[in-house]
Structure formats: C-alpha cells, structure tokens
Design brief:
The complex is a heterodimer of chains A (467) and B (142). Chain A is of the alpha/beta class and 467 residues long. Chain A contains 17 helices and 6 strands. Chain A folds into 3 domains: 78 residues; 193 residues, no CATH class; 172 residues, 3-Layer(aba) Sandwich (Rossmann fold), CATH 3.40.50.1220. Chain A has a 6-stranded parallel sheet with strand order 3-2-1-4-5-6. Chain A starts with a helix and ends with a helix. Chain B is mainly α. Chain B has 2 domains: 68 residues; 72 residues. The longest helix of chain B has 31 residues. The chains are: A alpha/beta (467), B mainly alpha (142). Chains A and B meet through helix 1, helix 2, helix 3, helix 4 and helix 8 of A and helix 1, helix 2, helix 3, helix 4 and helix 5 of B.
C-alpha cells in the first residue's frame, strides 16, 4: 500500500517535471515552470522519505545533510550573472559526484551480498559510476577554466598521442566494467580502477578544450549528469530517476547540438579537435590599415542612425558593461532610434549567456533577436555596434576557406552601413583568428575597456540631451 | 491554430508515457501472483525491459519539449535541468537511510545528499532569479 502511494507520488512528480520544462518555452510562463519543478522535487523527496526501508534513526542524519546542502546551495545562487557558467559547471560536478558516490555504495553492497546482483544492475551501476565521476572531475576542470583559476590553463593543452591515450583509458575502463558485469564478487578489486579511470578521464577530456568551446562542453556535461541519474534509476529500478534523468539528458543533448551547429563543427571535433590554439597565421607581414574613432564620434554616429544593431560578446560580460549598454539603449530609443540586439547562439561561455546578462540590465527581451532573424535586416542597419564579440562577426567564416572557422554561421555585421567595434586592442580573440571585419573600410574601432567606452558613449548621449 | 499540433503531440506523448508506466507497473505487480516455481529470471527480464521503455519514451518527450524552449531562456533552462538532475537525491536518501552493516555506506549516501541538495536549492533559486529579469518592453502589446 505504502509502496503504491510512493510510486503515485513519483508519477505526479514526473508529470510536474515535464510541465516544468514545457513552461520554459515562453518567458511569460517560465517562472511557473520553476514552481512546478520545486513541487515535483518536494513530492519526490517526500515520497522517498516514506520508503519503509529507511531506518528511523537515520532521519536526523538525512536532515543534517539536507541542512548542510541548503547552506551551501543558497549562497551559490547569489553569484553574479557573469559567473553563471562557472556555477553551472560546478553544479554539474556536484551532480556527478552524487551519482558516483551512490554507485560506489551500491557496488560494495552488491559485492558483499547485501543487495541483489543481476548483470543488468551491475552494468547500469558501471555506467553510473563512469558517467558520474567523469562528469565530476570534468566539470570541476571546466569550472576552473571558466573561473580562470591560475593552475588550470584556460588555453587548450595538447600533447602528442592525446586522443590515443584518452581512448585507450576509456577502453580499459570499459573492459574492467565488462569483467565486473561477468562476476562482480570475483573481480571486485577492479572497481576502484574503474573509479580512478573515470576521474582521470574527466580531467583529460577537458584539458584540450578552449574557452570558446565551453558552451558545447557545458551542455554535454549537463547531458552526462542526467544520464548518470538514468543509470542510477536502472540500477535501483526507480522510474522517477529514469524519467527525470532522461529529461535532463535530452536537454543537454539538444543544447550541445545547437551549439555545435552554431559553430559548424561536429561533436568529435569539439571533444578531440583542440580548437582555439593560436593558429599559424597565413597573413604574413602585410600591414593592414585600421581606422579608429573616439567614443564621442561613436555616439554622434549612432544618434544619426535610424536602426542600430548591437552585437554583444563575451567581452561585454568580462567588462560587466551590460548596464552601460542599457544606458545607450535608453538614450537611443528615447530619440526614436530603434535598437536591437543580435544574439549569436555561442556568444558568451554558455548557451543563452548574453540574453541573461542583457535581461539583468533590464533590456526588454522583445529586442533580443536571434542570429537567423537579424541577418536579413543587416543591410538596412545604419550602425552595427560590436561589443566584445569577435569570431561571431568574422566574415572570414563566409569567405576564407582556409580559416578554421570557415562555414560557421555568423552575424553579418559587415553588411551594415557602418560598423563600430569596441575592443581593448588588436589582439586576436579566443579562437586566435584575425578578424577581417576590423580592417573593413566601413569599420571604426573604438579602443578601450568595454565598460569605460560604453560609459563614455552613454554619458555623451545623455549630455547632449540635457544641452 | 499553429500551436494546436505541438500541443496535441505533447499530450499524446504524455499519455503514451503514462500508459507505458502503468503497463510496466501492472506487469511488475502481476508477475509474482502466479507464484510459478521459478518466476525470478523472467520477472527480472520483464523489469528491465519495462524500465528501458520508460527511458526511451521519456527521452522522446524530453527531446520534443526542449526543442521548443525559447532560445532566450537557454541559460535558465540549463540551471533548471541542473536542479532536476539532482533527482539523484532519491537514490542518495535510499542509501543514506537504509540500515547497513557499516555506517560508511550511509556516509557515502549522506555526502551524496549534501551534493544533490546543494544543486536543488541553488538550481531552483538561481533559475528563478534569472527568469525574474526577463521583462517585456513596457507598454508593448503583442
């Protein structure tokens, strides 16, 4: 009887999780989605606590763990929005750790004969432990790279035979798993080896990946965290774990596919390609002319425009310039200039990063436009203001077959009547590729820190109005 | 009108998933009743096939729903699914709560609870914090 009630609670929780994600299709209903998710989680936890197998004396320990988790979780939700990619990666690490630890406990319970052993369960357990621990260390590495911690190089690290070593490690881990499935009691000594290889593999997998590929990798790790929950569900024969994990897994999968498409690259290329090294430039010593202007010139140019398209990139996030951008947006819209934001899917360090930053600066989301929708409008655009974006506006992606980013869909900033690019210096961007847009004769560079420059432009626009 | 078809599709897939679950539950429940001499291997086989069915259907539902999530909201989506994947808390509680020969097992479960609850709490809170910021243009009517 009790068991039926628990299963029904799980059933309702699953439905609520599905609604939670469904309501995310529109910003107007999205907050309802969070509520549904919370309700689902409460049902899931409450249902589990009623499980007859749980010993009365252990509730106090569980309560303690929940309090401790809450105490860590609440401050983690206060991070500045520019740090959201790191926080997300860190959460994936926690998720992987939880799955991995449950797997370890369950394995030794099975091996000591306390829990029933079937080949299917051991197989699921191995998958859970592999995915869980590789997500754990991989996500920690990713978080470290995003946070730019000193001893984790944010540039990709490569060495010869890298892919061979990674694949060999994975193969050894899978062979160990296969032997464990055959006979978990006899080969129990192999289990720590699997755990160790998974931890190591997670580190090695992320080391060669550069910052520009982080959106894909974070999405992929998201998927792994979900799949490890699925594997846990198979092992424990718990359908709620399977459905919720599958929802998470498919979400991560779709996001990483979108990211890959937006960079015109394949999964294998992202994972094994070690993109983002400074390329040996073929440009040679040819001196190209760059024209620059002052923030005041930039302000005057935009005042006279009727359509301004702003292309934000990671540089805007780093400089925390979004609030100054909002001031520019306000001043310009007050004068009847229509201002739109062109959002490239991989701008920033995680999917949708720019949208959140601009929403934080209270820019209405109706003016945040996707790449595919803005591109046909670009020829009508009078001024295109590029703030801290680089590769996503590089016309080489359309024209230069030798460029590493050739074929990647870009925002056609070069089709605008004039381009203003705010940049600290002429150093190449994260992918290490020269940007032909900056040498275009329609382009004016505004050198300086994105926050300082946008601040000056905004000040000039505001001052003009007052006069 | 345009939204009718996706809505209907979602409804159908939901019904299918729920139906599959019910069947799986019924199958799981009905197996022990015959009390045949050795129903064990058969029951186990039924069990995991049923869970594979649930997994497949849930994945299709997931792919279908996520595909329609607004691109504006991909960052909040990720933190939301982050919180949802912390459903691993269910397994953690089971390990931490059961009685084992050694308390070490419970300890592993408890650490797993701390990690999952951290994700649940911070995931939902930050998702809501981000979503609060998405506002329509003032006075805009659509």
């Amino acid at each position: 009887m009790n068991d039926t009630i628990i299963q029904l609670a799980y059933l309702v929780a699953t439905a609520l999780f599905i609604f939670s994600l469904k309501w995310m299709n529109d910003p107007a209903t999205a907050r309802r989605g969070v509520l549904a998710g919370v309700a689902a989680m409460v049902m899931a936890i409450a249902g589990t606590l009623f499980n007859p197998g749980i010993l009365g004396g252990n509730y106090k320990w569980i309560a303690l763990a929940v309090i401790l988790g809450t105490a860590i979780g609440v401050p983690l939700s206060w991070v500045p929005l520019t740090a959201v990619p790191q926080r997300t990666a860190l959460s994936h690490a926690f998720g992987g750790l939880a799955a991995g630890l449950v797997g370890v406990a369950e394995f030794y319970l099975m091996a000591s004969g306390a829990h029933e052993v079937t080949k299917f369960r051991v197989g699921a357990l191995c998958a859970e432990v592999l995915l869980g621990f590789l997500t754990f260390t991989g996500s920690l590495m990713a978080a470290g790279k995003l946070q730019e911690i000193k001893w984790i190089p944010s540039r990709p690290v490569t060495y010869s035979g890298q892919n061979f070593i990674n694949l060999a490690l994975l193969a050894i881990a899978i062979i160990c798993c296969a032997m464990l499935v055959m006979n978990p009691t006899e080969y129990r000594a192999l289990f720590p080896v699997v755990v160790f290889l998974a931890l190591l593999f997670g580190v090695l997998l992320i080391i060669p990946i550069g910052g520009a590929d982080m959106p894909t990798v974070i999405a992929l790790l998201n998927s792994y965290a979900g799949l490890s929950a699925v594997a846990m569900g198979f092992m424990m024969d718990n359908k709620l774990l399977i459905t919720a994990g599958a929802l998470d897994g498919s979400s991560g999968l779709i996001l990483s596919i979108i990211m890959c498409k937006a960079m015109n690259r394949s999964f294998t290329n992202v994972l094994f390609g070690a993109f983002g090294q400074v390329q040996a430039t073929s440009a040679g010593g040819e001196k190209k002319v760059v024209r620059s202007c002052t923030p005041t010139d930039a302000a005057q140019l935009m005042e006279a425009a009727s359509l301004v398209v702003i292309v934000p990139g990671y540089g805007m996030a780093v400089a925390q310039a979004q609030h100054r951008v909002r001031e520019i947006y306000d001043e310009l819209t007050d004068r009847g200039v229509s201002v739109k934001f062109a959002i490239h899917p991989v701008a920033g360090r995680m999917p949708g990063h720019m949208n959140v930053l601009l929403a934080e600066a209270e820019i209405p989301y109706d003016d945040l436009v996707e790449m595919d929708e803005i591109n046909p409008e670009m020829p009508q655009c009078d001024v295109c203001l590029v703030i801290g974006a680089n590769d996503v506006v590089n016309p080489a992606a359309r024209t230069d077959k030798s460029s590493p980013i050739f074929g990647m869909p870009i925002i056609d900033a070069d089709k605008a009547k004039a381009v203003l690019a705010i940049k600290r210096s002429m150093n190449p961007g994260f992918a290490g590729i020269e940007n032909a847009l900056y040498y275009n004769e329609k382009t004016l560079m505004v050198f300086g820190d994105a926050k300082a420059v946008t601040g000056e432009i905004a000040k000039h626009l505001a001052g003009d109005e007052a006069a | 009108m345009k939204h009718m078809i996706p809505k209907a599709l979602t409804l159908v897939s939901l019904t299918l998933a729920a139906g599959a679950w019910t069947c799986a539950e019924a199958a799981a429940a009905s197996v022990p009743i015959p009390t045949a001499p050795s129903p064990e291997p058969h029951a186990a086989a039924m069990d995991y096939v049923a869970t594979l069915f649930v997994f497949m259907l849930a994945t299709f539902v997931g792919l279908d729903i996520i595909r329609r999530v607004s691109r504006l909201l991909h960052t909040p989506l990720m933190s939301l699914t982050n919180a949802i994947s912390a459903i691993a808390v269910v397994g953690s509680i089971l390990i931490a709560g059961q009685s084992h020969e050694s308390f070490h097992y419970n300890l592993l479960g408890l650490v797993a609870i701390v990690a999952s609850v951290t994700n649940i709490v911070s995931g939902f809170l930050i998702t809501d914090r981000m979503l609060k910021m998405f506002k329509k243009r003032e006075g805009a009517k659509r």
